[in-house]
Amino acid sequence: MITTEIISFATVLFTAVCVASLISILYAWGLRMWADGSVDAQGNAHLMHRVISVICFTACVSIVLFALWLMIPMFH
Prior knowledge:
Order of helices and strands: HH
Oligomer: single chain
Structural class: mainly alpha
Shape: elongated
Radius of gyration: 18 Å
Transmembrane segments: 6-30, 51-72
Number of domains: 1
Largest sheet: none
Number of helices: 2
Helix content: over 70%
Keywords: Membrane, Transmembrane, Transmembrane helix
């Protein structure tokens, strides 16, 4: 009985750490790509960096909203 509780706790802990790390990495990469997307000295805009950053921020928001959907029973 206690073994299954420890395994369940370890599973939840591992999943929480992985998801938190994924959100942190996506947010940091999104910030980095947004900063690289500015106009350079020759006047060229780096539009692809901005698009990648928006995709990263969208993924962060999607993960958080999905987690909220899982936690709040009213949405089921």
